[in-house]
Amino acid sequence: MTIPFPSDAWIKAMMVDLNESAAYLEAAKNWEGDFYFVVNPGGTLSEPVTLYMDLWHGKCRDAHAMDDPAALAPAFRLAGPVATWKKVMSKQLDPMQAMMTGQLKLTGNMAMVMKNVRAAKELVESCTRIPTDFPV
Amino acid sequence: MWYFSSPQIVHGEGALSHLGTLTGERACVVTDATLKRLGLLDQVLAALEPGGMQVLVIDSVEPDPSLKTVRAGAQQMLDFAPQWIVALGGGSVIDAAKGMWILYERPDIDAAAINPIETLGLRGKARFVAIPTTSGTGSEATWAIVLTDTDERRKLGLGSREAIPDFAIIDPALVAGLPARLRADTGLDALTHAVEGFTSTYASDFTDGLCLHAAKLVFANLPAAVAGDAAASEHMHNAATLAGLGFGNSMAALAHGMGHSLGGVFHVPHGRAVALFLPYTIEFCVRGGGTRYMELARALDLPAGDEEQAAAGLVKAIRDLERAVGQPLTLEEAGVSREQLEAELGLLVDNAMNDTQTIMATRIASDEELRELFRAAWEGRTVEI
């Protein structure tokens, strides 16, 4: 069964996957910082959707879709068109290349990112494991 | 979508004279105390004279330059306001100068946060010239920057595509007096760049030829260059820049991740460290699939019936070359005791795991696999995981 992306159910499925991932636990043991994943419109997705994840030392403590993105001020924000998210999540586009070429825009404490690149890679690996129904 | 970045390269005998064509009011030369003592700084200052610029010299860059050194140099640049930054030295000096340049242009940025994701807007204040005085780093042709966080005992693989030098001056006269040990260390760094650049997950048609030719040049010329042959030395100087262009656009991989980690903890020279790990990482990666060792081995006239044979042939050829130029093949030979390794293994693994180059390998090592790789490299045994 596939889960619609982006949605509250999808980000909760990713939370379960991350918390079961020994590789993520290992790679992200020093990671501190919550995230907004902003999925911009495309295909049948007509409005931006913001998904929230609270990531802390290799575990995901909370995850949900945001009704009001202004309600929180997470440490990191990764944003891009839904078509780009699909390419990354289906391994057609390397996530680091997507960020380095501006196809996905990452903001936040870049020193934390540069010291924990493996955590970022494992985070995206988790995305690829969720059976997903994309709107594009 | 990807980019190919390159400086304008001035090469060959007399290339240093290109400095005389630079125009502006002020230039800052970044170097180290040894190059000042050897008179290479004087050659650069003389070459800059026709431009009539005021010159500030920063000669305090240490091996494995720290974030602190970079911040201090950037402050000197902010006070002096140069339009040109000229980096004269090996990888440590060039990387430190790139870091100073970025903080000079963008004082709001934390040196540890220099990254290839955000736009920096460089060249509003200054342009950058890199003049390598070793033959291996390739930093003159890359946008990579390796700095050391001395508090965390960790080398940070940083960089920004904007930090590619405007000019790289590849003048063989500047490496004529290079000591044999430094030629061997840095030459094997160039080989590691060529091999990892060719086999990295970011390799492309634009980088393959550069990496292959650089690898051929190193195998053909390093022993003679170490022995002092001038023609071989010039070929090695060119090979280093070619390999830099190659891996700078396709990224390095696991041997660099482990080498950075080792250097941050035990201060083993960079080239010696990455080359020591290269055979072990080839043995590890070939067991994961997706490698291109056959193609590389064929280009080097090595046995290449299949990936495994090609990897084994490469490993042997690399170790033969390392032996020929007197390099250590194991961590023990590099001066790390078993007790030291075990005491620092946790930090070595953590730092290697989160090195920016480690994730470019065709096979990503887990925590436990990295432990095994470090131990295999200490004992000198074949990697069988």
Rg estimate of chain A, integer Å: 14 Å
Query: Mean of the pLDDT scores of chain B?
Result: 97
Rg over alpha carbons of chain B:
20 Å
Strand content of chain B: 5-15%
Whole-number total of structural domains of chain B:
2
By CATH's scheme, which homologous superfamily of chain A applies?
SCP2 sterol-binding domain
CATH class group of chain A: Alpha Beta
CATH class of the largest domain in chain B: Mainly Alpha
Work out the helicity level of chain B. 40-55%
Q: Walk across the major sheet of chain A and give the strand order.
A: 4-3-2-5-6
Structural class category of chain A: alpha/beta
Strand content of chain A: 25-35%
Q: Would you identify the CATH architecture of the largest domain in chain B?
A: Up-down Bundle
Q: Got a strand count of chain A?
A: 7
What report would you give on this structure?
The complex is a heterodimer of chains A (136) and B (385). With 136 residues, chain A is an alpha/beta fold. Chain A has a single domain (3-129), classed as Nonspecific Lipid-transfer Protein, Chain A (2-Layer Sandwich), CATH 3.30.1050.10. In chain A, 38% of the residues lie in helices and 27% in strands. Chain A has six helices and seven strands; from the N terminus they run E-H-H-E-E-E-E-H-H-E-H-H-E. In chain A, strands 4-3-2-5-6 form a five-stranded mixed β-sheet. In chain A, strands 1-7 form a two-stranded parallel sheet. In chain A, strand 2 and strand 3 (49-56) form a beta hairpin. The model of chain A has no long low-confidence stretch (mean pLDDT 94). Chain B is of the alpha/beta class. Chain B folds into two domains: 8-175, Rossmann fold, CATH 3.40.50; 180-379, Dehydroquinate synthase-like, alpha domain. In chain B, a hairpin with a 4-residue loop joins strand 6 and strand 7. The longest helix of chain B is centred in the middle third of the chain and has 22 residues, at 205-226.
